[in-house]
Every structure is written in C-alpha cells, then in structure tokens.
Amino acid sequence: MAIGITKRPKDVRQEVAAPLHHQVYVVLRQQIVDGDYPAGKALPSEHKLEDLFNVSRITVRRALDRLAAEGLIVRRHGKGNFAQPVITPPPIDTSLRGMLENLLAMGLKTRVDLIEFDYVPATAEIAARLELEPGAIVQRAVRVRRHEDTPFSFLTTYVPEAVGRHYGADQLLERPLLSLFEKAGLTVARADQTITAKLADTRVAPLLDVDIGAALLGIRRIVRDENGTPIEFLEALYRPDIYEYQMSMTRKGKKQEFIWSDTGSTNQ
C-alpha cells in the first residue's frame, strides 16, 4: 500500500500567499512528522511530486532541499529521497483535571525568557476581561516559555496594577506567575479559557522558531480568585508540535440522544 498523497492536494494553490515551494514543504514535513513516511521510507520521486502537487520541478526541489537542510530527509543521488528519524523533545505532560495546579507544575518544569515588562493603560477589551474601568493601569508582561531549550509558548499576561505591584520582573523569571499570586496572599480558585487556531506573525515566528504563517494553538484564559475577581488575563500562543490539548468524553443523555460530555482534559 502506497504511503502519501493519492491525489493532487488542494492545499497548494497560486491564490495562497505562501510561496508554492513552502506549501509543498509544509505538507511533506507534516507527513514525515506524523509518521506517514517512517525513517528509511522513500518519498515519491520528484516527477511524482510534480504531478501530485501540480508544481514545477524547481519548486519540488526547493521544498526537498529545505527538508534535507532540516535533517528530515536524506537525498541519495540516483536512488531518491528518504525520510529520517524525527527528533523532537518529549511533550509536556500536565493533566488539566486540576488545571491550575498543573499549570503551576508546568511553570516549574520549564524556563522563561522575559521579552517585555511594563505598566500600561488597559484597552477597552483588556479592561472588560479584568472587570476594570477602561484606561485603568495594568501590568503587561510578554514571555517566551521553553521546554528543554525549545521555545513552545508565547505568553502575554495582563494583571491589575494592585496585584502586579507585589512582584517584579526578576521574580517573573524565577517563579511561575500563579506561584507569585499565592505568595502575594491571593487564592487562585478557577480559570475560564477558550481555545482556537492562530497564525504566527512576524513578531512571534522568530521567537518560537517557526515559519511566518505557521499554525499555532491560541488560548485565552481569565484567572479568578476565590471571590470570582479576575486577577489575570492571558493570551497565549503554543506550538502544536510540542503542546497538545486532549479531552476525554463520555456519552450522556437519554437513549435516543447522543451528547458528549467532558470527563477530563489534558494538555501536553
């Protein structure tokens, strides 16, 4: 049974902003990473790839050159292109059944680079999220978190000034933000979050070591204290090759109904 694309993919189109060779590269890279082409398996010939993607030979070669430069394939003259073992750092494994406790654990297992740290007037959106008056002063911190020296998240946090004044920039480099809240005497009780898909822009891409336009996991989270008062609004972008969100579900409802209910979630 042949492994790979069996028909011309609609992903590769002239109307898409990304260059054609990049589109070919992205599709082939994903197939290699996903194991569609295990280590030692030959990719389709250049001629076959031309036909599959409906592109020129030079476009195919540029995509293959990039895969070879990244160590994802080895090119053997007269024999073809062969997938190589994919080396990735082990995933971050943190159960979200106890989300806040495990987010704290994640902070202790990883290290952070502080990109920006200042106090700014809250925009209307940020003020609404934190239930403050528009223009109220909030602490804004931008961080990149790393796992085994690999950047995996771009984090922008907004904290009410009264909360943020309990710690400084140096402490953000040393301790997880949730730990600093607890040290300040705040009881972190719950969080509400939404998850969506985002694209890496010109600022985020180099910091996360991904291509401009690469798909990212976007998370927005509001953290509240025991009184239900918001004490943090987070906007986070995660690399999906390192961070995953998993959910377990069970069927609920009457026999004629089919309703899925969340029984536990995991991020990795």
Q: Which tags fit this structure?
A:
268 residues, DNA-binding transcription factor activity, Arc Repressor Mutant, subunit A, 9 helices, Chorismate lyase, 11 strands, transcription, 34% strand
3D architecture notes:
This protein has 268 residues and is of the alpha+beta class. The protein has two domains: 20-83, Arc Repressor Mutant, subunit A (Orthogonal Bundle), CATH 1.10.10.10; 94-267, 3-Layer(aba) Sandwich (Chorismate lyase), CATH 3.40.1410. Helices cover 28% and strands 34% of the residues. It contains nine helices and eleven strands. The strands form three sheets. A six-stranded antiparallel sheet has the order 4-5-6-9-8-7. A three-stranded antiparallel sheet has the order 3-11-10, covered by helices on one side. The longest helix has 14 residues, at 20-33. The two termini are 32 Å apart. Residues 18-86 form the HTH gntR-type domain. This is GntR family transcriptional regulator.
Q: What is the CATH H-level superfamily of the largest domain?
A: Chorismate lyase-like
Helix content: 25-40%
Radius of gyration: 23 Å
Distance between the ends: 32 Å
Strand elements, count: 11
Q: Would you identify the regions where 5 or more consecutive residues have pLDDT less than 50?
A: 1-11, 92-105
Widest beta sheet: strand line-up: 4-5-6-9-8-7
Largest sheet: 6 strands, antiparallel
- The CATH architecture category of the largest domain equals 3-Layer(aba) Sandwich
- DSSP strand content: 25-35%
Shape: elongated
Instruction: Provide the residue-averaged pLDDT.
Output: 81
The quaternary organization reads as single chain
- Structurally, the number of domains stands at 2
Number of helices: 9
Q: What is the N-to-C succession of helices and strands?
A: HHHEEEHEHEEHHHEHEEEE
Briefly note the structural class of the backbone.
alpha+beta
CATH topology of the largest domain: Chorismate lyase
CATH class of the largest domain: Alpha Beta
